Amino acid sequence: MPNNRSRNRGFTLVEMLVVLAIIAVLIGLLLPAVMAAVNSARRSQIALEISQLAQALEAYKNHFGDYPPSMGEDYSPANRANTAVERHLRKCFPKISPAAKEGFYNAIDPSSGGQRLDQGEALVMWLSQIRKDPRNPFDLSSDNRHVFYDFDQTRLVDEDGDDFPAYRAKHAKNTCFIYMESKTYGAHAPGNMPAMAETTTDPLLHVRPYCLDITSTPIKAVNPTSFQIICAGQDGEFSNDTSVLKVFPGGGNYDEADQDNITNFSDGYRLQDKIP
Q1: What average pLDDT score do residues 233-245 get?
Q2: CA dihedral angle for residue 240, residue 244, residue 247, residue 253, rounded to 10 degrees
Q3: Who contacts 162 (Cβ-Cβ below 8 Å, separation ≥6)?
Q4: pTM (2 d.p.)
């Protein structure tokens, strides 16, 4: 008679341990590939949003005839006539009333009791908060606005409490997109940096325009007649050193925080991926 006990024998402890070891090895082999795929998908999402923001800025220019300034200048009464903002207002909003212009300057001039807009806040303001009233385009109480980009309201943040929100990037920790327009590249110096996350003083959350060549006179910037959009990437850090200018694509003066940045001039790649 056949021995049923031998036929129905289950796994031994040793066999189960072997199976578990094989599964652990397979997971160990697959996990890096899975994480690489996840990170690649996240970078693609960041790059796509940068591309969409760039298209919105082009739409703004097509409508008004100029790229919006990215702020950062001295808007005190004695200096306003010399700013890129003043030139922009004269070109794009020639019918603005004197009272509306004065109110706008007072709102963005700390010496007049206003709040300094940083580069992230400027991006949101110009693309979504300009009123369809040529006499008073900066009345934020009105819903009748030009909307060049439909910002996700859940990612609009006002960490410094100045009533001007910036736009938090997906997959970049707490940092927001930075916008710098070519006519105001020079205004974005280390002493006038944007606040890009939960803290307004963290030097790891700062950025300056990237350059093609810093040995020439004058210095050649990337996108010298348009703009730069910069995301901190998945590490959530723009740069550890804002005292020097960074060279793209060569990587001159890059630090570890620069490497992961994604921009509108790096074709959707991280800056480290574009170094020759």
Answers
A1: 87
A2: -60
A3: 115, 116, 117, 121
A4: 0.85
